Amino acid sequence: MDPVLRLIIIIVQSYLIGSIPNALIIGKRFFGIDVRTVGSGNMGSTNVSRTLGWKAGLAVQLLDIAKGLLAVLLVAYFFDSEMPFVNYTPFEDETVVGLIAGISAVLGHMWSVFAGFKGGKGMNTSLGMLLAVAPVEVAVGLGIFLVILFASGYVSLGSIAAAVIIPSTMAFRYNVLGISIQGYHTLVFFLIALSTIVIYAHRSNVKRLLAGTENRFSKLMIFKRDA
Question: Model's pTM, two decimal places?
Answer without folding.
Answer: 0.81
